[in-house]
Amino acid sequence: MWQALAGGPTGFLGSLWPLRALGYLLAGGVLGLGWLFLAVGLVLVGIVLLPTGIGVVALLCVPASAAGLAGLERRRLRWLDRRDAPSPHQDASEAARDEPGAGGNAARRALRRLWRRTKSPATWVELGFAVPNAVLSVLDLLVAVVGLGLVASQPFALFTVVGGDQVMYGEGIVLTEAAQVLPWLLLTPVFAALACYLFAALAGARATLARAVLVGPRREKELDARLTEVTASRARLADAFEVERRRIERDLHDGAQQRLTGLIMTLGLAKLDADPALVARAQDEARAVLAELRDLVRGIHPSVLTDRGLGAAVEALAERSALPVRVADGLGARRPAEALEVAAYFAVAEALTNAAKHSGASYAAVTVRGGEELTVEVRDDGRGGADPDGGTGLTGLADRLAVHGGRLRLSSPPGGPTVVRIELPWTDGQDGRGTA
């Protein structure tokens, strides 16, 4: 929310952030007041029924209900903040200890779970949050409702006819001509914009408070450290894959291909002295194996990609595709980093293969563009309905792009067209291939 507010009035007011903020305030107000009524009811029931023992259970439900409210608040944080907000409660381990084989009936297990939840320090932190949160919920609802009411009533309810052509704006401003009413009506968008900023600021402050109390700085640091480690391990995995790919490419080029080339030459000489038909057949087989190995090497890492860049490599893919493919290369002489070229190349290859096998398309188009991002768009006129979970390899492609901080966007409505958009953060190529 704070980033949206800092993005300028045009981007903020033209986005959904004001509606998100308003929804956050209204929902928070309803939840907070609802919990307050529930908690007061449980306390009253607990006090009245305390001699029977049921009152103890009712009183224990008060902090447990605060933990439930805190869980809803952590989920609602995603309306304004995409960062994770995990629960501090070890629900999985508690559930494991409460299996039916652990002894006791269902009611006894529920009471044990309630007692453990009540003893948890995090529960009492959440109860300490829930009480002032219920009070602040009144402010949330008041600001949201009054702000909406003022904006909605501005063009209608604030003007009263005094007599003749005279109208009164508010209580003390008398306008004698109809033209004088227009400037006051034009203030409505101004009031609406101010209300949007007020909603956003209050919602951002409430979300910041909720995150500070319900997640806490220590948990944030643990999440940041874990995210850093995951990112580093993912980068190491990508580097290891690239090293292994180059080793396979080198072994195939220097080993099997050289031996098969020698075999073809030997068979050509032997054709002069042996059975010509048999030797010719063996020579054809050797040529087929060599062609297969060359295709394998090209599939691991095409030489045209290294020598001439992504645009030329995509054009080579288009020539071998079963579909007619039109390529628009907007990179020119610029080249991104080699790892980005490789990731984009294999994403395009997979997208064209899917279009030829599954879409029923009659043609495809590939557009390559550079700038702040390396963007490649593959479009076909097929029947659409592509599903990433349908085994088409799109999920694997998205994972491969994510290693480099990229995204795979898919639009494939039933009836088509299907558009696969590959977005990678631009990094200039080095080793003489581009501006370092």
Automatic annotation (TrEMBL):
Residues 339-428 form the Histidine kinase/HSP90-like ATPase domain. It catalyses: ATP + protein L-histidine = ADP + protein N-phospho-L-histidine. Residues 83-100 have a biased composition (Basic and acidic residues). Residues 83-105 are annotated as: Disordered. Gene3D superfamilies: 1.20.5.1930, Histidine kinase-like ATPase, C-terminal domain (3.30.565.10). Keywords: ATP-binding, Kinase, Membrane, Nucleotide-binding, Phosphoprotein, Transferase, Transmembrane, Transmembrane helix, Two-component regulatory system. Its EC number is 2.7.13.3. SUPFAM superfamilies: ATPase domain of HSP90 chaperone/DNA topoisomerase II/histidine kinase. The chain crosses the membrane at residues 21-48, 54-72, 141-162, 182-202. It is an enzyme of class 2 (transferase). InterPro entries: HATPase_C_sf (IPR036890), HATPase_dom (IPR003594), Put_sensor_dom (IPR025828), Sensor_HK_TwoCompSys (IPR050482), Sig_transdc_His_kin_sub3_dim/P (IPR011712). Pfam families: HATPase_c (PF02518), HisKA_3 (PF07730), Sensor (PF13796). This is histidine kinase.
